[in-house]
Specification:
272 residues; 11 helices; TIM Barrel; single chain
Length: 272
Amino acid sequence: MAKDFRFALGIRFVKSRAALVEKAKRAEDAGFNVLCVPDHLGAAAPFPTLTAVAMVTTRMRVSMYVLNAAFYKPALLSRDLQALDVLSEDRLEIGLGTGYAREEFEAAELPYPSAGARVDYLGHMTTYLKENHPTVPILIAGNGDRVLTLAAQHADIIGLTGAKVRAVDDPLAERIDFVRNAAGDRFESLELNLAITAVPADGSRLPDLSLTRRYASGLSDEEMLSMHSVLSGSPREMADTLSGYREKYGVTSFTVQDNHLDNFAKVIAELR
């Protein structure tokens, strides 16, 4: 039996309390299951933002896409997560990643570890949080072999980007097969999440590729439009695309940015 869809809305910037409250309530009414905040200097701070969201919503869960594990010590992060879980009345999900932006480490006056050391620390953080928050779902997002192995063996939700790691025709299928092999018997219980980087504006059929271009600067527009993380067409056509992802890949969870709230709400309505 196919798993139910889940949809997450990412909020990167907060202009005012009123704007945040309005957007959070609108997202909940539109059928989004999760509201998440990234962890970047210069963007909204995850914990106060998510606490504010939790206080004005009742059904929508709160999460991070994703916390930079290297910014935190496990016991201190655990304390903040516990408080957010209480204030959200058990609606917390924990999103974790290795961190990647050297300039943010430098701005935070923190050493920038090697890629391998960052993955090792993510593993340490994941073990600690699973022991201290055993009932809270954990999402680990990444694309490399070591991060996806860690996610497959310890996380509840796998955050995929659909980006190509090897020279294959279907990079999303390749990464999911990798997770399946690493997860073993756990695989059927995992939720597969895909980060959507581009959605058409309301009334348009073609997406704005500016965010996608940040992460795939070497690709042509045609190549970006063919990526799994880029949606095109009407709400009905996008809904059909996501239904196809569920049938072909088993991906049932999708994260979009808040500038796509209104048009993606129509996609959600088509799928429910």
